[in-house]
Amino acid sequence: LKLPFSHDDQLTHCMRLRFQSLQQKNLRPQDGEKLLQPNEQVYRVDFIRQHNLRFLRWDIQLDSPGKVTVTGTSQHWTPDLTHLMNRQLLEPVGIFWKKPGAEEVECNEADAQELGERVAELAQVRKVMYFLLAFTQDLEPAQLRASIVFKA
């Protein structure tokens, strides 16, 4: 079962507005609030099946060299009512990178495995899961194709 990451334009935009609003009003974020950084985007995975999923692997493809950090959230998002808090960010994060001239994307396998297993656990209680993806080294969201693969 291969479930793709979908860019959530609306939620990304909503979180950017929150950041702009705080800046314009010269206000500070709430204690522990996670504000979306310029290199971060919100993605979602919709679980078409929720039970008896066993994490197999990440399928991350990068069209150019760079690094993407995948942070899962434990929040069941209602963006109009709640803000993302740092305590809602899952550990560990998945870090995937492609070196110049390389064909394959590399990762820290232990962390990626643990994150995948946490996602499989959370899938049992929710139909949608949200992720923050941070792009570095000139990597752009358009250069990413990402899925998470389970044995169903």
List keywords for this structure.
Jelly Rolls, 9 strands, 2 helices, single chain, alpha+beta, 152 residues, 3-stranded antiparallel sheet
Q: Quick summary of this structure?
A:
By secondary structure, the chain is of the alpha+beta class. The protein contains 2 helices and 9 strands; from the N terminus they run E-E-H-E-E-E-E-E-H-E-E.
Polypeptide structure, described:
The chain has 152 residues and is α+β, with helices and mostly antiparallel strands. It has a single domain, classed as Jelly Rolls (Sandwich). It is 20% helix and 34% strand. The protein is built from 2 helices and 9 strands. The chain has a 6-stranded antiparallel sheet. A hairpin with a 7-residue loop joins strand 6 and strand 7. The longest helix is centred in the N-terminal third of the chain and has 16 residues, at 9-24. It is globular and about 45 Å long. The protein starts with a strand and ends with a strand. The relative contact order is 0.30. The mean pLDDT is 93.
User: Roughly how much helix do the residues carry, as a percent range?
Assistant: 10-25%
Look up the CATH topology. Jelly Rolls
Mass-distribution shape: globular
Radius of gyration, whole Å: 16 Å
Instruction: Tell me the total number of β-strands.
Output: 9
Task: Report the CATH architecture.
Answer: Sandwich
Largest sheet: 6 strands, antiparallel
Strand order of the largest sheet: 2-3-8-5-6-7
Instruction: Name the beta content range.
Output: 25-35%
Order of helices and strands: EEHEEEEEHEE
- What's the CATH H-level homologous superfamily? Olfactory marker
